[in-house]
Each structure stands twice: as C-alpha cells, then as structure tokens.
Amino acid sequence: MSGAALGLEIVFVFFLALFLLHRYGDFKKQHRLVIIATLLAWYLCFLIVFILPLDVSTTIYNRCKLAVNSSPVESNGSYITLAPSKQKCFKPWSYIPDGIMPIFWRVVYWTSQFLTWILLPFMQSYARSGGFSITGKIKTALIENAIYYGTYLLIFGAFLIYVAVNPNFNLQWNQLQTIGIAAANTWGLFLLVLLLGYGLVEIPRSHWNGAKRGYLLMKTYFKAAKLMTEKADAEENLEDIMEEVRKVSESIKYNHPLRKCVDTILKKCPTEYQERMGRNMDDYEDFDERQNSYPSEKSLVKLHKQVIYSVQRHCRAQVQWQILLEQAFYLEDVAKNETSATRQFVHTFHSQEPENKIVQYFYTPTVEWYWECLLRPWFYRVLAVVLATFSVIVVWSECTFFSTKPVLSLFAVFIQLAEKTYNYIYIEMACFLTIFFLSICVYSTVFRIRVFNYYYLASHHQTDAYSLLFSGMLFCRLTPPLCLNFLGLTHMDATISHRNTQPTAYTSIMGSMKVLSFVADGFYIYYPMLVVILCIATYFSLGTRCLNLLGFQQFMGDSEMTSDLIDEGKELIRIEKRKRQRQEEGENRRREWKERYGNRESSTRNRVVHTDQKESSFSETNTNRPLSKYTRSNGRTERDRIELLQDAEPLDFNADSISDDPLESDSGR
C-alpha cells in the first residue's frame, strides 16, 4: 500500500475539481486556457487539503523511528520492535516513502504561487480585454498589470537594498526565500481569518434556517424581487449596448478596414439581435471618409468589451431567474403538501428535465413526502448542531493553540492521544475532518461572496472567466496559511509546539520562521484570536445591517424594506406561476385535440387520397366528357374543406400575447 493512498487521492481530487468547475464554468464557450488555469489552481489547492493528513501520519511514524534509543532487534517490514521498551512502531497503511513528500510539496506550493501572483492576474486582464487579436489582448493585459507587478517589484527591491546596506543582516538565499513565503502567508492569513469568522457562524445557521420552510420561502420571495430588478437592469443595459452596435454596424460598411472588427462584435451578440441588424444592413453603399466620421479602433475595442460583459450578465440573469422560479414553486409545493392526508407528494408542475428511471423507482411520491415534510427538517437541525459544535471547538482552539503546557487546543489533544497508541486511521480521520471543516468554512465563503458584478461565482455554468480566475487566485493564496493554521491547531508545527521533533514535510519547505520572529511569535499566534470578534459580528448580522443602512437591500426580518420586497416577490412568483399554468393548460388541450381527432383525420385523409386516385383514373379514361372538370373541381373543394378541418386547433387565450402592432400579430399568426 506504499504510495497507493497518495495516488488514489490525486486521482479523486482531480475529478472533484473537474466536477465543481463544470458546475460553475462553461467548457463550451469559455477559452480553454481559462478552463485549464482555473482547474489547475483549484486542483492544487484541494490536493493540499486532502494530502496533508497523510503527511501528518507519516511524520508521526518517522518520529517514532527517531525516538529509538537502541538499534532495532527485529524488523519484518510492517513494524519495528525496540529492544529496551519493547515498543512497536507500526507502519501506517498510507505510509509515503522518504523523499517523496518534500518534492511533492515543493512542486505543488511553488506552482500555486506562480499561478496566483503571476499567471492568473495576467489572464484576468487578457480575458476581460476587448481586443480583436491575441497581440492586442496581450498588450492590454501587460499595460493593466504594469502597476500591479511594479508595486511588488518596488517593495522587493527596497527590501533588498535595506538588507544590503544594513550590516546587522547577513541573509542567505534560503532566508530570503523564507521571508517571501512569510510575506505571502501573512497576506493570506489576514484574509483567511475574515472569511473563517464568517463561515464558522453562517454555515451552521444556514443549515438551521434550512429546516424552516416559512423562512426559506420568504427569503426566496425576497430574492425574486431583487433578481427581477437585476434582470430588468441587465435587459436595459443590453438594449443600450445593442443600439450602439447597430449604429456602428450601419455606419461601417462592408469595404471599410474596420469591418472585420464589427463582424467580430456582431458574433458576440445574441441571435435575435444579429438577425435584426442583418435585415437593416445595406452593404451596397461604399464608405466615404470625407463625408462621414467613423469610430476608431480603440472605441470598437471598448464596445467589444461592453458587449461581452452585457451579454454574459443578461444570460446569467435569465438562467438564475428560471432557477429561482423552480425553487419557489417547489417550496410552495412543500408547504402545500405538509397538510396532505394521503402522504404523497404532489407537484404543481411536472419537471422539465427527464428524470432517471432508477430515481423514479426508489424515490416515489410517498418517499418524497416523508423526506421533504418530515425527515429533512430534522436532518438539517441535527446537522446544524453538529456543525455548531465543530465551530465552537475551532474558536476555542484558535484562541488557545499557543498554550503547550497544558495543551488547551482540543484538536492537539485528540491528535496526541491517538499518537500514543499509533492509531493512524484515527489520526488521519481526525486530521481530515478538521482541515475539511476549516476548508468548507473558508471556501464556501469564497463561493458566496459577491462584489457587485465584479466578482460573482454563479452555478449552472453562468460564471464568467474573470470570476473563475479570481477564485483560483483566492484559493492559491488562502490554502497555504490555512494548512499552517491547521498544523498549529494540532501542534504539528514545531514553531507552535516548541518541541525538538521532526517537522512535517509541508512545514519543512516553508523554512524556519525564526528569521522573522515578530511574525512567527506575534502575528501568527495572536491575530487568529480575532476570529472571536468576527464570529460575534456575524452572529448579530452587523455586516448585513451596515449594508442595509448604506442602501444595499439585505434580508432582515425586522426591516420594513424587507417586508415590501417579500410582498413584491410573492406577487411576481404568483404571476409567473399563472403563466406557467396557462401554458400547460394550452398544451394539454392541444394534446387532447390531437388524441381525439387524430385517428379520424388520418382515416379521412386516406379516404380522400383513395377518392382522388379513382377520380384521376376516371378522368383519364373519359377525357372527352365535359363533366370531368366538374368532378375534379368538386374533389378539390372537398379536399380544401378537409384540410381546413385538419388545421383547426383549440385557441389558447393568453392576454400577454395580445399586441397592438398589426405587424407583430400577423407574424405571430
């Protein structure tokens, strides 16, 4: 099993990162380099989280071997028997041979740092650039990142000059490398505590509120009102941008040098706008530079960038609106079925996507009723209590992990108890659950936060390239300090435990933080205590109240604005529900009409065809008779009457489809 666990986790984490990226990104529309860079960043960060428990168990085994006071007298490959104390150092099932982990961590760490500080910022500017060629996009990206890169080079250069001039410092290359790592981890730890303080409270609270059907329904109504406003703004913005594109397309004709740029912009527009602009085009007119003023290439680049942004925003709003409608309809169905006497879940609307037959066989309406109406609320409450317990343990350990005598950190107590018995399965499970919970609290906050329309991770393939790359940057900057914080909580970091023992392979590549004592003994120890203040602020929703005071509507139960938005959202859902019902009723009437008259019309059509054949053969044999033309005309009249009968369908009245424009009504018919 040597190295097998490492290989299995490497493969598993890759598919996990690929699944999440497929949920948020769009493999078909987005650039391949964006997909690959984001996948690599997510994969490396998730890999660090999953592999670190194996590093801990391997380090504990290596410490056991180093603690031998005399040479081993027996070795059969699975354990080593010590002569004086008869102690057995069992080799863990996931043991990784010496020399592999340091190389592995070095490759993973420096690759992630290269991504977050150099490649991903450059690709962000490249993805948002409106240039029409690769050279133009690269030039724009370099210009936008010149200040970004120049600032870091200036700080690093000033530090090197200070070290070279000051005689008290005699730093070598390894120490400079450690200082760089410490600077990156300090920046990441500053952001880590902020996100962790929010996640430790919000995740248990969201699961507890998930058991309240009324709360979820009211919040969905609130989201519907806000999303409708955003949807209207996106449609209005898209209309304005398309109007500018139309004017540019009409002014720049087919033989203009910038016509290729205009065609590139038109390809990024929605299909209906492309068809509308194509009908209004008159490419037979030549352009004249002396009579007309044409937009410059720089203005077209700006317009191209606006088109990409507005189309993405409009498509995202449309998809999110449909998802929110399905969620609201389902929550209303749950509230309606809670009082059902038959104990079978009845849906108002059928699912638009085909359901799996296996799921339909096991997840019957009765099973669905028991799960949604009885079991699911209790399951969410129990899960919320378990998560809240974990949060309390994390907060306590964050405030006491620096104490080694006595050991107050609960995670360190658990690991040390398991270390005495060399129960490696327990050690790995405890380490994995601890770092996994910390990662969930931090990463879920990254997925939840939204900075206007600048950064927003939207599911169902609606996240733009800029937000995907930005999330990769955040993960690469947050994961190393997260792992160091976890090693400090479990006292596996020698800087925290103050024990002269073998460090883990992960901390060995970080170097000794004694070069910067004020960071190792000050900031790394006392700054995480601020998580208590952040948890209190999150519990009382201080951030939400501040945003609400600034004019950003937030869901608050005691706010009059929230009540108004809930009523507005409820009315919007009612209107959309009525539209969906009219649509399904119309489809059902058409289906019943076809089922009722389909066989009769087919038999009538067969009789008509047979009659026509007889009449044609009769007319051919009697061409000299004048009566034949009347027979054919009567047959044609009969066929016309039958065809009119076939085209008849029941009318589905829809008030929304009435238009005052006769042209639109004709096109509709």
Automatic annotation (TrEMBL):
What's any one GO cellular component for it?
membrane
Question: What is the first-listed, main subcellular location in coarse terms?
Answer: membrane
Where are the coiled-coil regions? 224-251
InterPro entries in the record: GPCR-associated_LMBR1, LMBR1-like_membr_prot
Acidic residues bias (residue ranges): 658-669
Q: Which GO terms describe its biological process?
A: adrenergic receptor signaling pathway
Which residues fall in a compositionally biased region of kind Polar residues? 618-634
PANTHER family this protein is in? G-PROTEIN COUPLED RECEPTOR-ASSOCIATED PROTEIN LMBRD2
Query: Which family, according to the similarity comment?
Result: Belongs to the LIMR family.
Could you tell me what this protein is called? LMBD2 protein
Species assigned in the record: Trogon melanurus
